[in-house]
Amino acid sequence: MATITWIGGTGTWNTSSTTGWSPAQVPTAADDVVISSTGTITLDGVLNCRNFTVSVAVTFAGTTSPLLNIYGTISVTSTGAIGWTSTGSTGITFYISSLNKKAVFITSGTSFTVPFDWDSSNNLIHLIGGGGGGRNGYSSGTGNSTRNGGPGGGGGGYTAVTNLTLTPGASVSYAVGAGGTNGATAGNGTASTFNAGAYSAAGGSGATGTGGTTGGAGGVGATFTGGNGGATGTLISSTTGQMGGSAGGAAGPLGNGGSGGSSNNTNGQYNGGGGGNGGGSNGTNGLIAARGPGGNNASGVGGGTVPGGAGFNGGGGGGGSAGGGLGSFGTDILGLTGSGGGNGSTTNSSTPQNSYGYGAGGPGGSVSTAGAGGASKAGYQGLIVVTYTPLAANFFLLF
What we know:
Layout: E1 3-6, E2 11-14, E3 21-22, E4 32-35, E5 40-44, E6 51-54, E7 59-63, E8 74-76, E9 92-96, E10 101-106, E11 111-113, E12 123-128, E13 138-140, E14 146-148, E15 158-162, E16 171-175, E17 192-194, E18 199-201, E19 234-236, E20 330-333, E21 337-338, E22 383-388, H1 392-395
Parallel strand pairs: 1-4, 2-5, 4-6, 5-7, 6-8, 8-9
Antiparallel strand pairs: 1-3, 9-10, 10-22, 11-16, 12-15, 12-22, 13-14, 14-19, 16-17, 17-18, 20-21
C-alpha cells in the first residue's frame, strides 16, 4: 500500500501508465490517491483504489471507458464543497465528511459492486424513475383549424430502500430508468431498479398520442409518486396558435413531484409552468394572456417566474415565449442533488427547452399561428443514489 499523488496537471488520469503520478507507479486497489492538481483531467480506464482525497477543485472532462468498482471515496469537507463534476462516469463515490456518509451516484451501467465497508444496518438507497416524454403539437382539419398543443410527460416515481443486507464485494445488478421519447407519440419513461429488480421506481408516462390532450401520469414509486404532465385543450381556429402543456417534476425523498401546469383553454391560453421536484408544488396553469410560473421546490422557493424564468434547486421552470424556462436539479439527497423540476413548454411552435433534472418529464410542443405543430422534448433519465455509513471494521480489512 502507498499514498500516491496525481501531479500531472491538465492531462490524462489513468491506471495504465505511471506518467503523472508521484511516486511513479500504476495505482492499485491497495493505494490511497490524492488529487492535488488543477485543470481538465480526462479519465482513461478503470480505477480501483482504496481512498481518494481531492485537495483542490478538479473538473473531469469525460471518460473513454466507464469508471467502475471504486472502493474508495472522493473526499469533501462539507456538503457544499465538492467543486468538480464527472461526465460519463458511473459508480462515483463521495464521502460527505460533515454527515459521515458515503454516497454513490449511479447514472449509467448495470452492475454495482458492494463496497468492503458496507453496513447492512445503516444504508439508504434512492431510486428515481425516468420521466415521460412530451408530445408534439398537432393540427388537422380544413386550414389546420383544429389545433391541439402537446401535453407534457409525467415525472418519475421515487422509492427509498432502507437497510438493505448486501455482501461486501458482491455484484448487484441495477437499471437506471431512461427518459421517454418525444414526438407525435410520446414514450414512457422506464423504471429504475436495484438488486435484480427487487426494488423499483416506475417511470412517468408519456403524453397521449396524436390528437390527445392529456398529460402523462406520474410514475408510481413505493414511497412517492411523480407529478403529472400538464394538459392542453383543442382550439378551433385557422389564425391562432395553441400552447403546449408543461412537464411534471419527479418525486424525491421529500415528497411527490409537482404536476406541470396546463394550457387547456380553448382560446389560445398560454402554457403553464413546470412542476417542482419531490415535495414541491404544481406548476401554475397558463392564463389567456400570461404564462404560468413554475412550481416551487419542497422549501417553497425556486419556481421560475413569468415569462420563461428558470427554476433553481428543484423548482420548475416557468412557461416561456420561445422555449420555457429550465427547471433545475434538486438538492434533497445528502444536500447534493435529487429529482428535478419540469420546465415550461414553448409557444408558437418554437422548440421548448429540455427538461432538466433527474426524472423530470418532457414538455409538450405547441401549434403556430400558421398551423405548424411544434416539437416537444424527451423526458429526463432517472437516477440511483446509494448512501451508507461506512463500517469501520470492514474498511480496515483493506490495510
